[in-house]
Amino acid sequence: MRFAPSQLIVSLSYDLNNPMKIRAKHKVAGMLLLDRDHANRLEKGWNVPGAYLLLDRPNTDGRWGAYVGKATTPGLRHRVLQQLKDRAHWYRALLIRYESNDDETLNSSEAGWLEGRLYDHLAKARQVDLHNRNRPCDPTLSDDDETSLIDYLLPIESVLRLIGHTLYPRPAGAPDGGGPLTRRIESKSEANKPAPHLSPRGSTPKTSPPLGPAKDVKKIIAQIKAGTYVYEPPLSR
Questions:
Q1: Contacts of 87 (CB under 8 A, 6+ apart)
Q2: Residues 210, 197: contact at Cβ < 8 Å?
Q3: Tens-place pLDDT, residues 144-163
């Protein structure tokens, strides 16, 4: 079941060390994109149950690795700080929590269900290599609870695409030929090489044509020193 894309609101701080906050405007999901180097600055308000993704940098082919996890008690902040010590592969973490009401949070079953569905979603993606050894076991929820949690999946996918973590390779008909979104463009050394110049003696490097008959260099230097030198432009041919 697919839902219409939701509008994403991205909040950036003037302090580049602060995390990027992302939320879907009409959904209940609150998300935060956290650089590994700034994990210790994570606010204690994120010590609530939820799910998270630990992201590897995409390689030149656009493939990337990820670890899917959940946090219950004491919460996401505690779990991410623990993953700083346990896992060295990730450079960013995407944290997901319930945000519509400050008095409510995801419960343990909901966080586990979301973790399992995120695993399934990424396992089907051809651009992702999961670091999880086993599929997380998610509990059984009511149909209503599952429907509300499914609303989280599309905004999460939109955020991943926003930060350059696409789930599927680009089509072969894409302008870049189906490769990664960014690629290195090698400079062509031949572009700056002068074109050959035809002369009676054959092909030679292109140079400026002679401006006129050779002049007495010593005489010109003497005139310059004496202040009597007058420049005479070459005669046009």
A1: 54, 67, 131
A2: no
A3: 888 878 878 888 888 898 88
Ordered strands of the 128-130 beta sheet:
8-11, 20-24, 29-35, 92-98, 50-55, 64-71, 128-130
Of 66, 42, 217, 89, nearest to 33 by C-alpha is: 42
Phi-psi group of 179: left, alpha or beta (phi > 0 → left; psi -120 to 50 → alpha; rest → beta): beta
The set of residues, in sequence order, having a beta carbon less than 8 Å from that of 112 and lying 6+ positions away, is 70, 72, 136, 137, 138, 139
Pairing of strands 128-130, 64-71: parallel
Q: Which residue, among 28, 23, 19, 18, has the nearest Cα to 7 in the 3D structure? A: 23
Per-residue burial over 181-205, b = 16 or more CB atoms within 10 Å of its CB, e = otherwise: eeeeeeeeeeeeeeeeeeeeeeeee
3-state secondary structure at position 158: helix
pLDDT < 50 stretches in the chain: 1-4, 26, 176-185, 199-200, 205-212
Per the CB < 8 A criterion, the answer to whether 75 and 46 are in contact is yes
- The 10 Å CB-count burial string (b at 16+, else e) for 29-45 is bbbbbbebeebeebeee
Instruction: Provide the token pair at 206.
Output: 């292109």
Q: In this structure, is the dihedral angle defined by the CA atoms of residues 40, 45, 49 and 54, taken in order, positive or negative?
A: negative
Residue-wise pLDDT tens digits, 203-230: 554 444 444 455 566 777 777 777 776 6
Q: State which amino acid sits at residue 82.
A: Q
